[in-house]
Design brief:
Elements lengths: L1 H16 L12 E4 L2 E4 L1 H15 L4 H10 L12 H8 L7 E4 L2 E5 L8 H11 L22 E2 L7 E5 L4 E5 L7 E3 H16 L16 H23 L5 H24 L15 H7 L2 H11 E5 L14 E5 L2
Parallel strand pairs: 5-9
Antiparallel strand pairs: 1-2, 3-4, 6-7, 7-8, 9-10
Helix pairs in contact: 2-5, 3-4, 5-8, 7-8
Length: 326
């Protein structure tokens, strides 16, 4: 039985390395033809747009909501959720890559929906530490919650209600050291963002300061993923024990993480898509969905809400500090 199992594993690996698809159902974005697997024109465009949207700061739930509004369903006929959109976008097949046990092993025998660098960039975004996986809605409802910092304790601010005044406020729920009128803070921050993006040199924001060589990064990342896949194959064929496999994978993964982060950074310019060189930056910004607006603010500047210097009434702009990131 052990020999039969080993032969079956080797056969599975060989099929994977040959690029043969292992799909019980043709995935979303593809269709089956008499000549093999081809792109589904409408669905492939939706998937391609979803990758671009993630890199621009759109949430998984926003994409799911948009797809459901269009009447699109999963291959099982279900409505889309943030979790199912994430599962789709994490699949290597969309980059034309065959995987085995979750790791890429070679080129697939089907067309890619997106380039590998786009796929790697989105994968880096979706696997960021602390990011939810889309199982429950975590969409923010306000511009600066989780983005702006408390000037007293340094934690991210949340939202609350000033019942007596009947208005929403930003409040630090850790130390309760700051409370500021939400609408006033939003107007101030949006004004700074719009003014910056309307400057003649705004196009320079699209230039990476580190100017990473994406092609070289992709090669290094592919080599490390190959090491991970090889370690798993060696274990499957009883060439190494679990301890050595895990050690090899851990070393390769540690080297892979910063490379994937750089690939992610190479796509940061997508956050400003539609804003740079817009005739009316303010109108263009207002037209963006909230998660895109939040991504733009977070990419451009750090916002800190300071404790009240006095107990006077009214909003004081100097109670909000900012520093430019770009």
């Amino acid at each position: 039985m052990d020999r039969k199992s080993a032969r079956q594993k080797r056969a599975a690996v060989q099929r994977a390395e040959a690029g043969v698809p292992n799909w019980n159902v043709v995935p979303f974005g593809y269709r089956k033809t008499s000549k093999g697997i081809a792109l589904h024109a409408k669905h492939a465009k939706m998937v391609r747009d979803a990758y671009a949207a993630i890199l621009a700061g759109t949430s998984l739930h926003a994409i799911a909501k948009q797809w459901n509004a269009k009447g699109a369903t999963t291959t099982r006929g279900n409505t889309w959720t943030g979790a199912t959109v994430r599962q789709l976008l994490m699949a290597y097949r969309n980059a034309g890559v065959r995987e085995y046990k979750g790791q890429p092993v070679g080129d697939g025998d089907w067309p890619a929906i997106v380039d590998r660098d786009v796929f790697d960039g989105v994968r880096a975004v979706l696997t960021e530490p602390g990011r939810r996986k889309g199982g429950t809605s975590s969409a923010r409802k306000h511009l600066l919650t989780g983005v702006a910092k408390c000037g007293k304790c340094g934690k991210a601010v949340g939202s609350g209600a000033a019942v007596a005044q009947g208005r929403r406020v930003y409040v630090c729920k850790r130390c309760f050291g700051v409370t500021r009128d939400m609408a006033a803070v939003d107007r101030l921050v949006v004004g700074m963002v719009v003014e910056r993006l309307a400057q003649p040199d705004a196009a320079e924001l699209l230039v990476s300061r580190d100017a990473p060589d994406v092609t070289e990064l992709r090669k290094r990342a592919a080599a490390l993923r190959a090491q991970i896949a090889q370690a798993e194959r060696d274990y499957d064929e009883d060439l190494i024990d679990a301890h050595r496999m895990n050690s090899k994978i851990a070393r390769a993964t540690a080297k892979l993480a910063p490379i994937e982060a750089q690939l992610h950074d190479s796509h940061r310019a997508r956050v400003f898509d539609g804003l740079i060189d817009a005739k009316d930056v303010g109108t263009a910004f207002d037209a963006l969905p909230l998660d895109r607006q939040r991504a733009v603010v977070d990419a451009l500047l750090t916002v800190t809400i300071l404790p009240a210097a006095n107990k006077g009434t009214g909003f004081h702009p100097d109670s909000v500090e900012h520093s430019w990131k770009l």
